[in-house]
Design goal:
- By secondary structure, the protein is of the alpha+beta class.
- The chain has one domain: Gcn5-related N-acetyltransferase (GNAT) (Aminopeptidase, 3-Layer(aba) Sandwich).
- The protein is 29% helix and 32% strand.
- It is built from six helices and eight strands.
- An eight-stranded mixed β-sheet has the order 1-2-3-4-5-6-8-7, covered by helices on one side.
- A hairpin with a 2-residue loop joins strand 7 and strand 8.
- Helix 2 packs across helix 4.
- The longest helix has 17 residues.
- The two termini are 17 Å apart.
Length: 187
């Protein structure tokens, strides 16, 4: 818990599970990240439209690597592999309030196989055990049934609905706000 209570920032570690590995994002991930974030299926419920130019990925990574803001961003890979097949992040980390928010994406051809759940378990273990947060939040488009079921399987509870929260192109969308407390997390 010293990581949250103290002032020292924790470097983004590599996290390994039996099926997935999370490693810090790097500049060389730009091509794979562009393929992921330009896929309309992957980006359907995000707060911004799919990327249209490869430069968007390079710019995003350059900014991320330059200004971490205390956030942790990972490339999700298959265990024993290095190619990015998804992303996971822990951000909006509040040391004072001991909370953080998660984000995630996975290549559409891998949906429904448990990889996102495995990756999020690694992120949650890191948040609760290493950083010492007491609460993790997830902002999910309520129309995204798969994502709602995923966070609920992990123990998140839907705590509210923020109406008309995001504007993506001409579409206005809501946010289902989920919370998970360390005291109920089943790791």
């Amino acid at each position: 818990m010293a990581a949250v209570a103290g002032t020292a920032e924790v470097a983004t570690p590599e996290l390994a599970g039996s099926r997935v590995r999370l490693r810090p994002l790097r500049a060389e991930d730009a091509g794979a990240l562009f393929r992921l974030r330009s896929d309309p299926r992957v980006m359907r419920y995000w707060s911004h439209p799919p990327w249209t130019e490869p430069a968007q990925a390079a710019e995003y990574l350059a900014k991320l690597l330059r200004e971490s803001d205390g956030a942790h961003s990972w490339a999700v890979t298959h265990a024993g592999a290095d190619a990015l097949v998804g992303t996971a992040s822990l951000f909006a980390i509040s040391r004072a309030h001991r909370r953080a928010e998660i984000g995630y994406s996975l290549a559409a051809d891998l949906w429904g196989r448990g990889y996102a759940q495995d990756a999020l378990r690694l992120v949650l273990d890191f948040a609760f055990m290493t950083l010492g947060v007491e609460r993790v939040e997830a902002d999910v488009d309520p129309r995204n049934d798969r994502s709602c079921r995923l966070v609920e399987r992990l123990g998140f509870v839907r705590e509210g609905l923020l109406r008309s929260r995001w504007r993506v192109g001409d579409e206005v969308t809501d946010s289902a706000m989920y919370g998970l407390l360390r005291s109920v997390y089943r790791g």
